[in-house]
Amino acid sequence: MAAFLGLGLVTLVLMEWRERKRKKTESANPQADHMVRVPVDDACCGRHLVCERESLLSSTPEVVYYDDEDLDRLASIDPQNYSETDLSDLNDVFSTLRPEDVAGWLRSLQLRNIALPDELRDAALMIVAERRATLSHSPQ
Which of 15, 122, 139, 140 has its C-alpha lying 20 to 30 A from 31's C-alpha? Predict the structure, then answer.
């Protein structure tokens, strides 16, 4: 019984530490309001390759480029300060992506600290949500 109580206490302390670390990271990042955050179900669906490709959370710090290296100039800039050229470049990349590449592109932008304007972010998240819904209803 004491072991279970001790394990529960350790788990509670670790959860509290993780939450404080998350809040500290968010408060230190002024772009946090513009970053893409999508709740992810922790339950494994058994479709690891699909889940990994559709996740917006990166399991590795490796940046994958989608022929968009020039967008690195937008790192740490508020989307409201983007020029027409910046917006055009973002739209050009987004419009050439295949739907199955959108989640990976969003992960890449997050790792590079590039925030999307609201309307483009909403369109990208809609594509990701539609793909997840379609994949979750297809036979495994």
Answer: 15
